[in-house]
Write a structure and sequence with these properties.
The complex is a heterodimer of chains A (631) and B (339).
Chain A lengths: L7 H8 L3 H4 L3 H4 L11 H20 L12 H9 L4 H11 L7 H13 L6 H13 L8 H17 L14 H21 L11 H14 L3 H21 E2 L2 E2 L8 H5 L5 H10 L12 H5 L9 H8 L5 E8 L13 E8 L3 E6 L12 E5 L10 E5 L5 H7 L4 H9 L19 E6 L2 E7 L9 E5 L4 E5 L5 E5 L2 E7 L4 E8 L7 E11 L3 E10 L6 H9 L3 E4 L5 E5 L5 E5 L5 E2 L2 E2 L8 E2 L3 E2 L6 E6 L2 E6 L4 E6 L2
Antiparallel strand pairs in A: 1-2, 3-4, 3-22, 4-5, 5-6, 6-7, 7-10, 8-9, 9-16, 10-15, 11-12, 12-13, 13-16, 14-15, 17-18, 18-19, 19-20, 20-21, 23-24, 24-25, 25-26
Helix pairs in contact in A: 4-5, 5-6, 5-7, 6-8, 7-9, 9-10, 9-11, 11-12, 12-16, 17-18
Chain B lengths: L5 H17 L5 E8 L15 E5 L5 E4 L8 E5 L2 E9 L2 E5 L7 E2 L10 E5 L2 E9 L2 E5 L7 E2 L11 E6 L7 E5 L2 E5 L7 E5 L4 E6 L7 E5 L4 E4 L7 E2 L9 E7 L2 E9 L3 E5 L7 E2 L10 E6 L5 E5 L4 E4 L7 E2 L6 E9 L4
Antiparallel strand pairs in B: 1-2, 1-28, 2-3, 4-5, 5-6, 6-7, 8-9, 9-10, 10-11, 12-13, 13-14, 14-15, 16-17, 17-18, 18-19, 20-21, 21-22, 22-23, 24-25, 25-26, 26-27
The chains are: A alpha+beta (631), B mainly beta (339).
């Protein structure tokens, strides 16, 4: 079977570096950084440069002094960024280009070397890169992140080597044709993201696969319009990221994540971006693996203060609603891309995030959670959610162009070992419908008989304290400074959990977490969160939750009416629009972004980023960035 | 030039086949599209040889063209074997020099092509099956244009495209929502067999061009005896598993085989009236992704997770073939080229 589902991103981050090399990563292994905002711009900039230099120093230091060749392109990139060891880099590039890779994960590091190597690499080394791009077929991949990397790389290399004939490129097309095709696709992708929402939204790892190409366009594109587009899209991505993080940790729903990042929310490449941009959480091991390819060029980018403030300087709770979209659907669907209506409720102690349910991505999606803040997120499983662990060739066919049965078998071998397991926590389901109002989540399930894995799994973290199964039917717990109430709507059991030691071998080990298993087809979960500071004590929180009116009817259709802790009466019926205080939720009115920090109309191509008096407007209609300080 | 009269064309082909086998010299070449991925991930070095392989007289598989881990199909210009079309992850590739150099024919608006076919009566005309429809070319794929008039807005995922060898511009397309037919070079399509899920393969009989077979994901196998206009379900083919492909045997008009994930190899030696499990000797589980018959009548089965197997007695016994670890996405019998 052709390998299609995975990327090298996670592989590199997890296994690409030795344990010994981890010891030289001060921010990874050192104390928690301060989460307080740095007020002075010059100090922020200096700290940003220090973080960049930390990445470059570590990665460049992986080259052993006596070795004649460097086999890691990331090390070459680090050395070229530091403008050192050019002669060894040149020899190494020549050697590496004799065995080129075959797709976007090879193309963009090579592009980075080609650009950083200008004026440093020998003509022979530059020629070796050029030859590899002529002789070796490059696979475009099958995801939007693949294409962002592929077409950015093709765009930049075509600009670097203009006016060359079709025979000079693996594609059999001239520089001009490659450039035109790449430009057209990149603009198409930007159009989609800025009108109906990003596809692979809020990815825990794939943020790099978008942010790195956009940084390269912003830095190296000769075409001024494309340079501006790259800059604006990078601002856009980072603004979205800033508004979605809790003390630097990406939480809430994700189009793409993995079994580890799903529960240890900090442990994701996204945290590298929070660290390098905002400085408010530690980077992950090896600076996220791919982090070097951003860091090497990052000094050419300056994070707008307004985005920095959104990430680090919040003085009030807020609701942010965003419109995203699913990955492209090839079959088994009446629409090519379905809308994702995403909600975030952010507080100082915790955040609640969700989308309306359904499949946003076939294998790696995450639909909703409550994630609480912790003093140090490293190693902490600071989240709570439930899901239906569907495994379905029908769903796979919706998004992939493979024959039906091979996919399930193949995907488990390709870095997604949990896909066809009943105890998985990763994934989205056609049979889940979710609604969130502030810090209340109601998830309903209507699983048809005969569905593989006809039960729901709830994630009950081993890091919770005071876990209590109450006679009322609620499960109470505390995580950090957050009280949590979890209400399974059907009988359940608690099962021990195993976590993955390796996504590639599928090897598992014991975990302190538990899995709430409820083997009922019509089912549901209610979660209510609150800050510890809102109650006299844990008992008072429990008393308040027990007093909340709740009506549940699971058959024939799951229906819940619940008066939330915030005084709203929410009625959710599977298959129908949720109703809050008698008013139906109108998803058609959902804007592209709506909240105190990010605002954009659907189809507008225009994002307004706001924090206090600061405002930045990214307007893709005019390709302008407008900053102002509001009076 | 073969006559455009279907019956005559069939007779002519039958004559050619008879003559060829009477002389014990196959009139056909045999190609496969094979991937031998070993821990390959997108972006990594390709450490195996993948792509087009031709069966040599020695029995060895000879690699042709570039190393493509995602190849799904191949077609040749009947006038000139140096003109090669392949489909795969990037879309459609074309070589005009026998595989020495290649051009990616499509742009970003087309991707992950599933199949390609060349019209034998209009060899500049190329049809490309796409996961979101169909594109056609009248200039050897120098330019590709969407030709989807009559296909549904959704449900036009096209897995297989086959040109009727009897008449220029007559093409059958296997889609998510059934089999579609055009008789005017894809200007207009009409549905001739509705299905709820994918049509996974379509084949025209080498013995009678009016006879077509279709296999599907969930509604079994179907036969047409009027050139693909009307269809009848083949009895005796289980509906319990998707049927991935179907093949005729050019050496024997009554022999058919179906490849299926779960059912493995099903064979018929009475023109499809009865079907026999021919999995003895194949690895269990029977995850067969493709079956094919070479010009000498040897039956092949590509077993996912194992390798390619070959049978000299139409599936009664099997032995591993030489292309160890391969997964075959296409078997292609091609009339020997004059050029």
């Amino acid at each position: 079977m052709k390998t299609k589902f995975l990327s090298l991103a996670v592989l590199s981050a997890v296994v690409g570096f030795s344990a010994a090399s981890l010891t030289a990563q001060p921010s990874f292994s050192g104390p928690m950084p301060s989460t307080k905002p740095v007020q002075r711009a010059d100090l922020r900039r200096a700290a940003y440069f220090d973080r960049i230099d930390e990445v470059l120093t570590w990665r460049a230091g992986l080259a052993k002094p006596g070795d004649p060749l460097i086999t890691d392109m990331g090390v070459i990139v680090a050395k070229l960024a530091r403008r050192e060891d050019a002669e060894r880099c040149s020899r190494s590039v020549i050697a590496l280009m004799k065995e080129p890779g075959s797709g976007p994960f090879w193309m963009f590091p090579t592009t980075c070397i080609a650009y950083l190597g200008r004026g440093q690499l020998t003509p022979e080394a530059q020629a070796a890169i050029r030859t590899a791009w002529r002789t070796t077929l490059q696979l475009r991949g099958d995801t939007e992140n693949h294409w962002a990397m592929y077409y950015t790389s093709l765009y930049l290399m075509s600009e670097l080597y203009p006016d060359e004939p079709p025979g000079a490129w693996y594609s059999g097309k001239s520089s001009a044709a490659n450039l035109a095709e790449a430009r057209e696709y990149l603009i198409h992708w930007m159009d989609l993201a800025t009108t109906i929402g990003q596809g692979e939204f809020n990815p825990t790892h794939y943020i790099g696969e978008y942010a790195i190409p956009m940084l390269y366009l912003a830095t190296w594109a000769k075409n001024p319009a494309m340079r501006v587009r790259g800059h604006m899209m990078l601002d856009w991505l980072l603004a979205d990221h800033a508004s979605t993080t809790l003390r630097g940790v990406l939480r809430g729903p994700n189009a793409r994540t993995d079994d580890t990042s799903l529960v240890e929310r900090w442990n994701a490449l996204a945290s590298f971006f929070s660290w390098i941009m905002f400085g408010n959480t530690p980077p992950t091991a090896a600076y996220g693996g791919w982090g070097i390819y951003f860091a090497a060029v990052a000094k050419d980018y300056e994070l707008p203060e307004v985005i920095y403030r959104i990430a680090t300087d919040r003085d009030a709770d807020y609701v942010q609603r965003d419109l995203k979209r699913t990955r492209r659907r090839w079959r088994n669907s009446d629409v090519s891309m379905a809308p994702i209506y995403k909600t975030s409720y952010m507080r100082a102690d915790y955040a609640v995030g969700s989308y309306q349910g359904g499949i946003s991505d076939p294998i790696q999606a995450h639909v909703w959670d409550v994630t609480w803040a912790v003093a140090d997120p490293r190693g902490v499983h600071n989240t709570m959610f439930s899901m239906h662990p569907i495994s379905s060739a029908y769903d796979m066919q919706m998004y992939f162009t493979e024959l039906p049965d091979q996919m399930i078998k193949g995907v488990a071998k390709e870095g997604k070992p949990s896909y066809d397991t009943p105890d998985k926590l990763l994934g989205s389901s056609r049979f889940e419908q979710v609604f969130q109002d502030l810090d209340t989540v109601i998830a309903l399930y209507a699983i048809p008989p005969g569905t593989r894995f006809p039960h729901i799994n709830g994630f009950i973290s081993g890091d919770l304290v005071g876990l209590t199964q109450d006679g009322s039917g609620w499960i109470f717990a505390r995580g950090g400074d957050t009280y949590l109430a979890y209400r399974p709507l059907a009988p359940h059991t608690m099962e021990p959990m195993m976590k993955y030691k390796s996504m590639w071998t599928g090897e598992r080990t014991a975990s302190t977490d538990q899995r709430l298993v409820s083997p009922h087809l019509n089912n549901g979960t209610i979660v209510q969160a609150a800050s510890v500071s809102e109650f006299k004590d844990f008992a008072a929180f429990q008393t308040a939750i027990r007093a909340l009116p709740l009506k549940v009817k699971l058959d024939p259709t799951p229906t819940v009416t619940f008066k939330t802790l915030r005084g709203k009466t929410v009625t959710c019926t599977y298959g129908a629009a949720p109703v809050v205080d008698g008013k139906k939720i109108d998803y058609a009115a959902w804007k592209l972004f709506q909240g105190p920090y990010l605002n954009a109309e659907r189809d507008s191509r225009r994002l307004t980023i706001t924090h206090g008096a600061l405002e930045r407007v990214l307007d893709f209609n005019t390709l302008t960035i407008t900053d102002r300080v509001k009076p | 030039m073969v006559s455009s009269t279907p019956r005559f064309a069939g007779l002519l082909l039958g004559f050619l086949l008879s003559a060829a086998f009477a002389a014990a010299v196959p009139a056909y070449d045999f190609f496969i599209c094979a991937n031998i991925n070993r821990n390959y991930v997108i972006g990594s070095k390709i450490v195996t040889t993948n792509g087009i392989f031709q069966r040599a007289a020695s029995g060895d598989w000879q690699h042709l063209g570039y190393n493509d881990t995602g190849i799904s199909a191949v077609a040749f210009d009947p006038r000139d074997r140096n003109v090669i079309y392949t489909t795969g992850n990037n879309g459609l590739w074309r070589s005009l020099d026998g595989g020495k150099s290649w051009r990616m024919c499509n742009d970003w608006t087309m991707t992950e092509a599933r199949d390609v076919a060349v019209d034998p009566h209009a060899p500049d005309h190329v049809y490309l099956a796409l996961p979101d429809g169909l594109a056609a070319s009248t200039d050897r794929a120098q330019t590709l244009v969407r030709r989807e008039n009559g296909l549904p807005a959704r449900g036009k995922y096209a897995q297989v495209v086959q040109v009727d060898r009897t008449r220029a511009g007559r093409v059958l397309l296997g889609c998510e929502r059934g089999v579609y037919l055009t008789e005017d070079g894809a200007e207009f399509w009409r549905q001739v067999l509705p299905t709820k899920e994918m049509v996974l393969d379509l084949q025209q009989s080498p013995h009678d061009p009016q006879v077509w077979l279709a296999v599907t994901q969930s509604v079994g196998a179907w036969r047409s005896t009027d050139g693909g206009v009307t269809w009848a379900k083949l009895p005796g083919v289980p509906l319990t598993h998707p049927l991935y492909n179907v093949t005729f045997d050019v050496t024997h008009p009554q022999r058919l085989a179906i490849g299926s994930w779960g059912l493995g190899v099903l064979a018929s030696e009475d023109g499809g009236q009865t079907w026999i499990d021919r999995n003895a000797g194949l690895p269990d589980p029977h995850h067969v992704c493709r079956v094919g018959v070479d010009p000498t009548g040897q039956l092949y089965a590509s077993v996912v997770g194992a390798t390619l197997f070959v049978s000299a007695d139409f599936g009664r016994t099997w032995k591993p073939d030489s292309l160890a670890g391969s997964v075959v996405n296409k078997f292609l019998i091609q009339p020997k080229s004059v050029k």
